[in-house]
Amino acid sequence: MNERLEKYAKLIVKTGVNIQKNQILVINSPIECADFARRVAEAAYDAGAKDVVVNWNDEILNKIRFNKAAEEVFDEFPEWRKEFYLGYARQDAAFVSIAASDPEILKDVNPDRIARAQKVSGNALKEYRERMMSNKNTWCVVSIPTKAWAQKIFPNDSVEVAVDKLWQAILQTVRVGEGDPVEAWAKHQAALKKSKDKMNAYNFKYLKYKNSIGTDLTVELPEGHIWLSGAEYTPEGREFIANMPTEEVFSMPKRNGVNGTVVSSKPLNYHGNLIENFKLTFKDGKVVEYSAEKGQAILQKLLEADDSSSYLGEVALVPYDSPISNLDILFYNTLFDENASCHLAFGKAYPVCIKDGDTMSPAELEKAGVNDSLIHEDFMIGTEDLEIIGVTHEGKEVAVFKNGNFAE
Ligand code: ZN
Ligand code: ZN
Prior knowledge:
Helix 1 (2-16) crosses helix 2 (34-46) and helix 7 crosses helix 8. The protein is built from 13 helices and 20 strands. The strands form 4 sheets. Strands 5, 6, 11, 12, 13, 14, 18, 19 and 20 form a 9-stranded antiparallel sheet that branches. Strands 7-10-15-16-17 form a 5-stranded antiparallel sheet, covered by helices on one side. Strands 2-1-3-4 form a 4-stranded parallel sheet. The chain folds into 2 domains: 2-173, CATH 3.40.1830.10; 197-227 and 246-406, no CATH class. A hairpin with a 5-residue loop joins strand 18 (387-391) and strand 19. It has helices at residues 2-16, 34-46, 59-68, 79-90, 111-124, 126-133, 147-153, 159-173, 181-202, 296-303, 323-327, 334-337, 362-367, and strands at 24-30, 51-57, 94-98, 139-142, 206-210, 216-220, 228-229, 232-233, 239-240, 249-251, 258-263, 268-269, 274-283, 286-294, 312-317, 343-347, 376-380, 387-391, 397-402, 405-406. By secondary structure, the protein is of the alpha+beta class. Helix content is 34%, strand content 24%. Bound molecules: zinc ion (2 copies).
């Protein structure tokens, strides 16, 4: 196990954020993941990093604060915290985030406090997020097990067994096993590239989604949209992988071009709360009707986060028959669940998913049909019977997905 953890830490530093000589690495880590964060830090120093700065977080303390702190603190965001992120980003730091939260940690917290805290942090960190979503810095989101999270996934096992099972699953999804994971990733990326190239060559005007749980949705794609997968690049051409694992081929919908109904296929863990079995109806890009069997109030907060959070910012294709999906584990963690399922995202689109998007002004992006929002939240819609038809600019229809997988 030790050896595999070393490999994983090295993979994150080298293939994930591609650390450069004399660069600073910032690690966002839960305190429970301290051992692994130290391994990542050591691997970064060994790879030539000038320094490693760890931003520890504690979800239990966070919950205590949500319940007990004074009302006004949820409308404030300290300047020094903003400066922390932006300052390091401007110094060309790389960012690794360990995502490993208890999926329902905030279920008894007043949703109004959570929504306000998210809004104020979204506003304060807008420029930082902008930089990340335009690939100005290299960044990588990864996961390792925590006890609470593992027990949510494997409720019938002891803590030790649950954590061990989750480790095995995670290492499998990030291709850390017997051989050289860096090599395995190169191979994986080549496979993803095939689907991406195909989607870019078709340059579809619309994608039409249909399945038996009630999805019947048309997504218009903007002129100049670009499908991406696997590696991404900074403006200087530095390669990195933003999510480990990643199985998706993704682009952006046109802000006002989404119509019809879509039904979720997996629960969505939205900052410590679950939204389950939800259904959304879109008109000209905006959600005009919605319902959820569980978490309706949380879904409402999400859709009302700002003027654009009820519009879409991402369209992503993941075969039903893919390695993560085949594990048949519901992770309650978007990093894994989105890579096991076709998905869409509420909110901000990645500017790099449209031609010249990383250099366009906000007004130009808006004109091109690129959604901008304080949030970007993926939700899963893939099923084993999902059909997607692509419509070209000439009106020709092409099967993109059949029975949940890429056609042909
Ligand atoms: Zn995605
Ligand atoms: Zn996304």
